[in-house]
Amino acid sequence: MAFSFAAFSYIIALIFTAFLIFFAIWYVISIDELKTDYKNPIETCNNLNPLVLPEYFVHAVPAFLFVFAGEWGSFFVCGLPLMAYHAWRYNKRPSGMSVTGLYDPTTIMSGKNMKYNITEGWCKLVFYLLTFFYYLYSMIYVLISY
Question: What span, in angstroms and rounded, lies between the C-alpha atoms of 89 and 139?
């Protein structure tokens, strides 16, 4: 059993994906509180907007580690699709926002945006859970195979 850069990459990916699961749960809870009128849109946007760029960064670091480790399968399956989605989503954010983030208090309550945000939150949560277990399996495989 040998410790390699690929194993290190998977360990970092596991830790970072645990943070991403926390972010996704926070996101789903915040959107649900907004939907049930427990919080107002300004408060919700102030809670969610500061987490957008850290989420993108925390997802991108393991993806780039996989590139340097030569783990192309993990990069193309778990890293690249969500990074492309994040880039598309950030480009399509509401115009005229004065803060970095995706959520505008004036449009977040519309029915179309609310449904999209709820679906996005649950899809990200499922994606992060699946990648967590994929990284766990891959880490064990890499540690045993060398």
Answer: 30
What CA dihedral angle connects 87, 91, 93 and 96, to 10 degrees? 140
Cα–Cα nearest to 138, from 61, 82, 80, 66:
66
DSSP assignment of 61-83? HHHHHHHHHT-HHHIIIIIHHHH
**What one-letter code names the amino acid at 76?**
F
pLDDT digits (tens, 9 = 90+) for 87-133: 999 998 887 777 888 888 888 888 888 999 999 999 999 999 999 99
For the whole model, what pTM was predicted?
0.91
Residues 78/63, Cβ–Cβ less than 8 Å: yes
Going by C-beta distance under 8 Å and a sequence separation of 6 or more, which residues neighbour residue 47? 26, 30, 39
